[in-house]
Amino acid sequence: MTGPAGIRRVIPHRFPVLLVDRVAEVDPGSAIVTLKAVSGREPCYADLDAEDAYPLGLLLESWAQSAVLLTRWGNPNPDVLADKVELISGIRDVVVHGEVVPGDVVEHHVRLVREVADAAILAGRSLVAGREVLEVGSFTMARRRAEELA
Q: Which residues fall within 8 angstroms of residue 133, CB to CB, at 6 or more apart?
């Protein structure tokens, strides 16, 4: 299992935007399982009730960070200015099956469908206590040098 320090060695995300707590399993170039513990003390709950559902945008971002971890596992990029930036180029067939609330531990399952040059297609789902809460049919990303984006 890899915790926050190991994750920060692979991707550039840092608190408060790092939304993955642990890597539970990884099969480089194929699949990854990550964990995200949702807490009522997160910044998103500053203006929400601690019993409200975790925002869908943050749940998707956490899943996407898991996807980036998978694609970067063998080629870490802890500093985007020194390498390439991952950009979401599309997300399709997203199905929300249930809410996530503080106290839940989300288990993201991401699999690599295809990777070609500087692009990747991934898919997967997220579970809470074995209950599916999110399904991602297709997630595409591209990598570009930071100076190209300036």
A: 59, 96, 97, 98, 99, 100, 106, 126, 127
Among candidates 63, 31, 68, 65, which has minimal Cα distance to 136? Answer: 63
Compute the Cα dihedral for 50, 51, 57, 62 and give only its sign.
positive
What tens digit of pLDDT does each residue of 114-136 get? 999 999 999 999 999 999 999 99
CATH number, domain of 34, equals 3.10.129.10
Domain interval for residue 64: 4-149
Of the listed ranges 78-82, 104-108, 134-138, the one predicted with least confidence:
78-82
Cα R_g (the chain), whole angstroms? 15
Number of separate domains in the chain = 1
